[in-house]
Write a structure and sequence with these properties.
This protein has 11 helices and 11 strands. The protein is of the alpha/beta class and 301 residues long. The protein has 3 domains: 80 residues, Arc Repressor Mutant, subunit A, CATH 1.10.10.10; 98 residues, Periplasmic binding protein-like II (D-Maltodextrin-Binding Protein, domain 2), CATH 3.40.190; 105 residues, Periplasmic binding protein-like II (D-Maltodextrin-Binding Protein, domain 2). The strands form 3 sheets. Strands 3, 4, 5, 6, 9, 10 and 11 form a 7-stranded mixed β-sheet that branches. A two-stranded antiparallel sheet has the order 1-2. The N and C termini lie far apart (58 Å).
Amino acid sequence: MANTDPLSIRQLEVFVALLEQKSFTKAARALGLSQSTVSGHMADLERRLGLRLVSRSRSGVEPTAAGNALLPPARQVLHAERSARMAVAELTGLLSGSLVIGGSTIPADFVLPGLLGRFHDEHPGIRLLMRAGDTQEVVDHVAAGEIDVGLVGAAPLAKGLVSFAYGEDRLVLIVRPDHPFAKRKSVSLQDVAGERIVGREEGSGTQRTILEALAEAGLDHDLHIVCRVGSTSAVKASVRAGLGLSFVSELAIQDEIEAKLLAAVPVKGFSVKRSFHCVHRRPQEMSPAARSFVDLLQSDD
């Protein structure tokens, strides 16, 4: 039977981390705790509520029905706790704290490191943490209050968030250096449609941008996608292995082009340019550090 003792922030933090990481070991590592401490917090939380919240399966730790019911309010409580700390920091004028920045693959690898360096120079007391994921994952974490500001490869579709375009990127067709396309000055979209294609996962901003551009050209249903992979590095490795062709960010292939490990081939009448998108919660819900980081991005435009 559940008792009426208040639930602790630490218990809820452990519970949320456990379901996100799907492993006691990984949750302990993410929180900087021992596995036995994580297990103890979960046992105490379940004892206080009088319900099993998680179960173990072959795929890892999964929520029970009660766990699924607790997860949204637990995230809200953790967000509220962070907001309370931020409010105190702002009122007292502290120049310390933390900032969690999220980036989809290309921004995380090629854009955010320089921005974080500039931000650190201006605010050395702020601890910085960067989390990488695909566009949809980053947007979801911003909406849940787990990431303060995200920089992603496509405009977010989530409601209740603020976004603006930042910078510019170009997507190019890449092939192996020994592929027949590599010797041609350009290829047509019909040529591309006849080849095997390596695609990105469904949540990828790059994937969404390419499919939208191909749909406008009438070729979105004609592609022979042989596999989908979860990162730009995996795309490049798959193309080098001869699995197929792919479209990737021009920012991501400079080293491979110089080393002649990949070749970029122009596609006649098909130029895909995109902006990255900064996504964040409403200003009144943001920390001073998050607002300063957004100001930094906006000052570049």
